[in-house]
Design goal:
The structure is a homodimer of 359-residue chains. With 359 residues, the first copy, chain A, is an alpha/beta fold. Chain A has one domain: Vaccinia Virus protein VP39 (Rossmann fold, 3-Layer(aba) Sandwich). Chain A is built from eleven helices and seven strands. In chain A, strands 3-2-1-4-5-7-6 form a seven-stranded mixed sheet, sandwiched between helices. In chain A, helix 6 links the parallel strand 4 and strand 5. The two termini of chain A are 32 Å apart.
C-alpha cells in the first residue's frame, strides 16, 4: 500500500521538462549554487573516506538521485569523478572505468537529460526511472551515491491532512505555514518514514565502504514557522491560491485538497534520523544557509524557480491556465511582503552530510 | 572521425516516438512475430550455454540493444529472465537479482519507454543512450546481450554514394535496389566495418562465458537483388520519391542526397564476419524467413511499419508535410506491383545466432 501511494505520486509528478524559459533546466541556478558550495565538501569527503584498496572495484558506480534534466547533476558527478580519480592516482593505482546512473521519477524528462549529456564525459551514462523511496539498484553495486536538493520531497501527502474529519485537516492552506501542530506532525511523521525507507534501500545497494553524499534541506531548531523562509515562501503561494479560490477561479475544495509534498525538518530531528540508522556512520557534516527566495533581490528568481519546480504539480491539480496568473500574483505578494518585513532574518539551512556504509 | 560521423547519424535519427497511430510502438507487430519465433531459440540457448557456476555473479546484467520504446524488448527480456531463472533453479542455486539495460540512440523516446515498463517486472531497469557501434558499458559487466531487428542499421551512409564524382554515386535511388555493383559494395564495406566494431565493443563488455543472442536480418545467397523483398520494398519507396521529385514537390538533388542507412548482407558474408571474430564462438544458429512486407495481404501493415521506422529520417531530409503523400503513393504502388508479380517468391531471411564470449 505504501508502495502504491508512493507510485501514485511518482506517476503524477515531475519538474518542468524541456529547455524553454519556464523549464527546470533554465531555472535551477539556486540548486547550482549549492552544488558549487558543495564542491569542497565532496572532494574532501572522497579524499578522506574513499579507499581504492578497500573497494577493489573493477568499475566505480556512481548514482545521482533526483537528477532532473541534468544541468546540476552533471557538474556534481564531474566533481565526484575527479576526486575519485585523484584517490587512485595518489595511490599509484590504475583508474577504473566509471558508470554513472542518473535517477529521477518515471515522469522526469529523461529525453532532455540524455540529449544534454556532456559530450566529453569520461563515464558510461544510464538513466534510472523510479522513486528513490524504494529499491532502484541490485544489491551491493554502488560505490558513491549523491543527492542534492531532493530530499525535501516526501513520497506522499499524509492522508489525515486531506481528511475533513481529522484534527490534522489542512483546510485553506497548502503547506505547514500558519497550520496547527497536527498538520506539522503529520508531515514530520511521513518525512521520518520516507527517510528511513531511503536509508534502508541505499544500505542494500551500496557496497561496504561505499559513500553517500547528501545535501538535505532543513531548518534551524529554534525558529518559529513564521521565521522560516521556505515556510513563508509556500505560505505566500498558498495565500495567492486562496485569493483565487475566493474570486471563484476554482473551488475552495480544490484548495483544501491540495498540499505540497515537501517537508524540511528541524536540523536536530534530521541528525537523529541519520545517526539512528545502524547501516551508516555519519563521517562528516556541514551546515550552510539556504539562499532566501524572498529576499527583495531574489524575488523574481525565486518565483521562476518555484514555478519550474511546482508548475506540473499545480496544473495537474487545478487544471491548465492558472499558472501565469498565480505566479504574477505571487511576485506582487512577495515583493510587498519583502519590503515590509526586511526579510534578511528569514533563513533556511542545508545540511551537507557524508555517510559511510558500514561493513 | 568515424565516431563523429556515427554520432551525426545517431543525433539525427530515431523511430517515431510516442504511442499515436503512426508511432513505432503501435507499428512493430512484425518485429514481435520474430521475437515470438525466437522464444524457443533464446530459451534453448540459455539452457545449453549459460552456466550459473561459471558466471558466479552477484547479479545478472542483461542488455537489450535497439530497444526503441520497449514494446518488443520487454517481451524478449522476460523470456531471457525466465530462462536464466530456470538455470539457477535446476542447479538448486539462489536466483540473483537482475539488472536490465535498455539501449537505443540518444534521440530514442526513452520517456515513453520508461512509462511503459511492465509494472510487475522482477528486474531493475535502466536506459542507456548511445550507438551500439561504440562502447556503452564498462568492461566485463554484461552477462547476456540481446538484439532483435536492429543490426540492419548501419552507422553512417558510405560517403562515395553521395559523391557526384564517385563511380558509386547512387543518383536517383535511395538504396541498393537496381543500383550498380559499386553502390552495393560501398554498403557492404560499411556494414562489415560496423559489425566488427559492434563485436569488438561487446567483447569488452561481456564477461567470459557471457552470451550474445542476436537476430540479424540478411538475404539468401543465390538471390538477385530484384528477387529480395526488402530490396524491392525500398526500391518501390524510392520510385515514389522519384515520382515526387519529377512533379517538383522537392528537388532532384534532395532525392540524390538521400540514402537509407540500412543493409542486409548475404547470409554467407554475415556468417564469415561472425565466425571470423576471435573473441566469440558461434554456438548455435537458425535461419528464419522474414515476413514479406509486399505480399498482398501485408501491404498496409508493411506500409505502416515502414512509415513508423522511416518517418523521422524522411522528414528530417525532405522537410515536413511529404510523409502522408509519400505513403499513400507507396501503398498504391506496392498493391499494383504485388498483384502483378505474385510476390510469394520474394523472401528475406533472419539469422538467429548465439555467440559465446570466449574466456
Amino acid at each position: 500500500m505504501e508502495n502504491e501511494l508512493s507510485k501514485a505520486l511518482a506517476e503524477s509528478f515531475s519538474m518542468k521538462g524541456g529547455e524553454g524559459p519556464s523549464s527546470y533546466a533554465q531555472n535551477s541556478s539556486i540548486q547550482r549554487e549549492k552544488i558549487e558550495a558543495a564542491k569542497m565538501f565532496l572532494q574532501d569527503a572522497i579524499a578522506k573516506k574513499l579507499d581504492p584498496n578497500a573497494l577493489s572495484a573493477n568499475q566505480i558506480c556512481i548514482a545521482d538521485l533526483g537528477c532532473s534534466t541534468g544541468t546540476n547533476a552533471f557538474i556534481a558527478v564531474q566533481y565526484i569523478i575527479e576526486a575519485v580519480e585523484s584517490q587512485y592516482h595518489s595511490q599509484g593505482l590504475a583508474v577504473p572505468e566509471f558508470q554513472v546512473f542518473f535517477n529521477d521519477l518515471v515522469l522526469n524528462d529523461f529525453n532532455t537529460l540524455f540529449r544534454n549529456l556532456p559530450p566529453e564525459r569520461t563515464y558510461f551514462a544510464a538513466g534510472i526511472p523510479g522513486s528513490f523511496y524504494g529499491r532502484l539498484f541490485p544489491n551491493k553495486t554502488l560505490h558513491v551515491v549523491h543527492s542534492s536538493s531532493t530530499l525535501g520531497w516526501i513520497s506522499e501527502i499524509p492522508r489525515e491532512i486531506t481528511n475533513r474529519n481529522s484534527v490534522a485537516y489542512n483546510k485553506g492552506r497548502i503547506h505547514v505555514g500558519d497550520a496547527p501542530k497536527e498538520v506539522v506532525d503529520a508531515y514530520a511523521t511521513q518525512y521520518q518514514l520516507d527517510m528511513e525507507t531511503f536509508l534502508n534501500a541505499r544500505a542494500q545497494e551500496l557496497v561496504a565502504g561505499g559513500l553517500m553524499l547528501l545535501q538535505i534541506p532543513c531548518e534551524a531548531d529554534a525558529m518559529l514557522d513564521s521565521e522560516i523562509s521556505r515556510t513563508k515562501f509556500f505560505e505566500l503561494l498558498g495565500s495567492c491560491l486562496a485569493d483565487m479560490a475566493k474570486e471563484g477561479i476554482f473551488g475552495e475544495e480544490d484548495l483544501d485538497s491540495f498540499n505540497l509534498p515537501l517537508y524540511f525538518p528541524p536540523l536536530k530531528n534530521l541528525e537523529e534520523i541519520l545517526e539512528g540508522n545502524g547501516d551508516f556512520s555519519v563521517e562528516g557534516k556541514e551546515i550552510y544557509p539556504e539562499i532566501s527566495l524572498i529576499a527583495p533581490n531574489n524575488v523574481k528568481m525565486g518565483a521562476s524557480h518555484c514555478r519550474a519546480t511546482l508548475e506540473v504539480l499545480i496544473e495537474k491539480h487545478f487544471g491548465d491556465g492558472i499558472v501565469d496568473d498565480l505566479f504574477q500574483r505571487y511576485v506582487r505578494k512577495v515583493m510587498e511582503f519583502a519590503e515590509v518585513m526586511k526579510v534578511q532574518k528569514f533563513k533556511s539551512l542545508v545540511l551537507f552530510v557524508l555517510l559511510n556504509r558500514k561493513p
